Amino acid sequence: MSPFYKLLIVVLIAGVVVIAYDLFQAKIEKGEGDPRIRFDPATGRFTFWKPEVRVRIVYASMFGPGEPVMRVRDDWIYMFEEDYSDVLAGKLGREVTGEERTRFVRETLKQAAEVRGDLSERLKAIESISDASKKTQQTEELLVWLEGRHVFLTPLEPMAGPEQKLRALRDLITGLDKLARDADPARLVRVAPRLVSVERRWQGRWVLSANRPRFLTGREVPDIMTGSKMELLALVQDHYAVPLNVPLAGEELSPLDAPDTYGDPGRTWREAFLPKMLKEGKYDFLDDPTVRGKIYLAPLTCSTTILFYNEVLLARAGIDSPPRTWPEFIAVCEKLKAAGITPLTADADVYSDYWQSWLIFRVMGPETWERTISGVPPEKPPAERGSDPPWTDPRYRRVHAEIRRLRDSGYFDKDFPGSTWPAAQRGFAKGSAAMMICGSWLVQELSGYKGLATAEGFRLKCFSFPQWPGGRQRDQTAAWAVPYGLMVCRQGKATAGAIELVKYLSAKDWPDMVHKNAQISCMVDADFSPDLAGIKQDFMNASAVYSRTPDIYARRFGSQVLSPRYRAFFLQEKGAGDYVSVEQFLKNMDEQNRRYLSDGGEEGYE
Amino acid sequence: MMVGKPKRLGGWWGPPAIFLAPAAVLFGVLFAAPAVSSLYVSLCKWTGFTPQMEFRGVRNFVKLSGDLRFWAAIKNNLWIMSVGGIIFFFFALLFAAALNSKFLRGRKFFQTMIFFPAFISVVGVATFWKLIYDPKSGLINLSLRAAGSEGLQWLDSAHAINSVIIMMVWAGVGGTMILLLAGMRRIPKDYYEAAEIDGASAPQQFFHVTMPMMREVILIALSLWMIGSMKVFGYIQALLAPTINDRNQVISTLQYQYAFSNRECIFMMGRATAMAVVQVCVVLVLVGIIRLFREKKSVEY
């Protein structure tokens, strides 16, 4: 045989092995046929779950186990599967009793005995480790290993230390031994059918695109999808989403008006949300009467655009409190510059549009901007509308003159036109500049730099965007927040269960977890993240929450017309010899906006 | 010995058809049919989420012709193809000629070194170059500043495409060099000996012996470069994303943004597909032009 054929055979065999391994692995991971053992470390009690899955909920998430922003912890899902199974078992009258119970417990204990042997060996190995960080890591790995064998230690304090976890593991072994010795172990454990299973799919940023073929074919459609209000818009637009303030078929109350089962059953689920954030779950701006008034997104957390500053650098320039108004902000920039500190930094590719949006919000309010872009009167077709006020209005001139001033006064780091995300924020953490505008997620993204948080290095603080003296009161005390949350999909097979899961996640540990990860929760019971303390007052007392930027109500205009032109203006790009002045930019925007409306607005942009 | 005419099974088309059928079916179902149906998509308004498409005729193409971002993207593709191509082939030929030279020692070593970037994935290359291009802590600007120069904003909108070209040349020159080198090594030594006896210098030998003999290989490498540079996606997306400046878009990245991007969420499948159709046409025309330069008869040696 020639070497070529030998090679071919080797490759083929390797391929077969890989595929076989993959299938085998998938079978292990599914593991739906295996009984599940849960040990509650607090009470020392066991629950054995008999698999009888009747409801399978598919949960498609942007955020995976590696991404702490808005991610769902595995044990919440397990707890939900069990809690909701109990509810269903009650409804269906399904109980595991008599001979069935004894036999199931005996078989499950056999499975447990195998795990117990391995577990005690592994535990001994970990306990002999002296290095603390290694010990913590191995304890975590052991818990994951245990979950892979369908043995769970829950509820476990989310922030429990390794010692606590090791103690719980030792208790688990003792408990198992006790069960093994008992003449009638079935008497000591709770046995229940597990009727619910949640399949999680971590699909990253591209969760929508990843599921597009599923929506098209109507097969394997996820029951729940996560994302921001804007990202999930496509689902609402094409009528794939289930409204939460409308009763499901056969129900009397809508999910939002039903009791907050898993939180405080004395109130409705609606009351568990901050009203100003729940309101943002609507998509009224879509020109569609079937959508109007309906809440599609369950907003669980939100991100807000704020100014971050490095307290160390501000202190060095003799500034002890962040500015409240725009003139104060400019004064702070001047002071920093005089002290030889670069006041502002930015990446050329992202976030610079926040200056424009915020200044417009403060100077004239988001509604005015919408009247300019989408035109008035709204009842008429776009081609017959006009911008009021037009882009050439003096207020727009003022806003853009201020943006230009930031650049012309040399407040920005001079390298910024060549920096691409995340170079600027990396530099910011290393002290290259004193302030930067960003979304609240920056805290999370810079958490790796906490090691630098020494007295002389980097202390991350934040403040609300400065107020505009003389502007409308409501605009000065408003917060700008984009809600993130869960949406239930109409084509899913387990809509009722999916809504239960959303309710469960909104009530359980989520609010708690969110604030510990420097996110802002939309639930009334949640604490405010200490990392964002600088904006707590402003956010909680905000007269209104603005989430309406052009990329929500005029996405195609925003991405095709506004943002490229604004970016050229902001970066003062020299194209074919032209220098984009405020006048030129506004005149150009005015022309483009006219063309956009006469082309038929968003719809005309296909 | 008698050589009999081989007997055919079932006529002329029988056996080839049997052997071709599986491949033809796969090709038809997995490639040809979707390609043809994408022509239809390019004539529709469609977000990609619903099975219903609205037929709009050539409206997508009309809109596309007025889309300045698209023209900017095509311009960038052509810039990469032409300017990038000149640099690319200059280095590829230079390295190939150097490695083919009998005076060079450690040939294998240099060959491996030059080819090495081809082992790295596109995203790896881009991440690596992103660090090198960093305005503050990047290797290039640090060295430039150490030498007393101001440094350059390598990734700002005015320079980014040229920075991409540098990166693409670095990453891709090895592969083309190997191709050209193989072509050079196929040229019989006699020609060079004859040229040397006639008194031709080394450059003269290169231009009058090597280049004409390698016409076919160079044209193939050139077609590959043209197709590659018209379709380039990964390098730009990995180096300049998440938000690529409009002045630095190429057709593929813009198409991706229109059709799939979760950042803008505009989901304009129709227009993006129209773009793909135009892209394919451009590639076909370019390859057609290259074919015009091919000689009817291949060079024989």
Q: Find the structural class of chain A using helix and strand composition.
A: alpha/beta
Summing up helix and strand content along with how strands pair, one would put the structural category of chain B as: mainly alpha
Quick one: biggest sheet of chain B?
Answer: 2 strands, antiparallel
CATH topology of the largest domain in chain A: D-Maltodextrin-Binding Protein, domain 2
How many helices of chain A? The count is 22
Mean pLDDT of chain A: 88
CATH architecture assignment name of the domain at 75-249 in chain B:
Orthogonal Bundle
Describe the biggest sheet of chain A? 11 strands, mixed
Order of helices and strands of chain B: HEEHHHHHHHHHHHH
Assembly classification:
heterodimer
Helix content of chain B: 55-70%
User: How much β-strand is present in the residues of chain B?
Assistant: under 5%
Radius of gyration of chain B, whole Å? 24 Å
Q: Name the CATH architecture of the largest domain in chain A.
A: 3-Layer(aba) Sandwich
Number of strands of chain A: 11
